[in-house]
Each structure stands twice: as C-alpha cells, then as structure tokens.
Amino acid sequence: MHVAVGLRLLTDEACRGITCPPHHEACRGITRISQPPARPPTSQFRSISNELYGTPDYHAAVRQQVVKSMQQHAEEYAPFLGSPAEFLEYLEAMQQDCTWGDELTLVGAALR
C-alpha cells in the first residue's frame, strides 16, 4: 500500500505507524491509494478505471457507463447545462475519448 501526502507518495515502509482511523484529526490531508498506476492516468476516466480495476485500461468502458447513466438520469444532470439541446451536445462530446471529464461526470461516476 502507498499513502499520498500532499504531493508525496509514501511506500509501505514510510507508512509504518500511520494507523489513523478514518476522519481522525491527525489524518487530514493523507489519502491512501490501493496501488499507484504504472504511469500517471491522463484523464478522469483513466483514474476511475485505475481505482476500480487496478488499471487505467478500462477507461473507455468507464466513460461509456458514466455517459449512459447520465443519459438515463438526464433530469438530474441537464439543469446544470441549460437547455436539453445543450445537454445532448455535452453528452455527445463526452462520449469522445479526447474530451476530459469534469465535475458533472465525476458526480455521475460516484452516484452510479
């Protein structure tokens, strides 16, 4: 296991003795991650894939699942983008691999 402290990534050796319970005052700002990626993920969907599956390789499937969920629950997401037409344009763009995820897709991934 590794622990990210600020911008530093600590190994298991450095983590010995860090046994704070969740939400403990002394542990604020310390984030434990299960496994560092082989290379830094370059997108939100790669990062989510890496956390869920241990590899960023499933980023396309994660993107598809998030967009599909947002389409199925359009009434929850469309108001953030204005008109229904703007929401459809947003979803079309978000389906493209070159489009970066944003706060809305992060919420979509977290809720589904």
Describe the fold and architecture.
- The protein has 112 residues and is mainly α.
- The chain has 2 domains: 2-33, no CATH class; 44-111, Cathepsin B, Chain A.
- It has helices at 12-15, 44-53, 59-72, 74-77, 84-94, 103-111; strands spanning 2-5, 8-10, 30-33.
- Strand 1 (2-5) and strand 2 form a beta hairpin.
- The longest helix is centred in the middle third of the chain and has 14 residues, at 59-72.
- The radius of gyration is 17 Å and the shape is elongated.
List the helices and strands and how they pair.
Blueprint: E1 2-5, E2 8-10, H1 12-15, E3 30-33, H2 44-53, H3 59-72, H4 74-77, H5 84-94, H6 103-111
Antiparallel strand pairs: 1-2, 1-3
The CATH architecture name of the largest domain reads Alpha-Beta Complex
Characterize the main sheet: 3 strands, antiparallel
Spatial shape: elongated
CATH class of the largest domain: Alpha Beta
Q: Spans with pLDDT under 50 lasting ≥5 residues?
A: 1-22
Keywords:
112 residues; mainly alpha; Cathepsin B, Chain A; 3-stranded antiparallel beta sheet; 3 strands
Summarize the structure.
The protein has 112 residues and is mainly alpha-helical. Helix content is 46%, strand content 10%. The protein has two domains: 32 residues, no CATH class; 68 residues, Alpha-Beta Complex (Cathepsin B, Chain A), CATH 3.90.70.
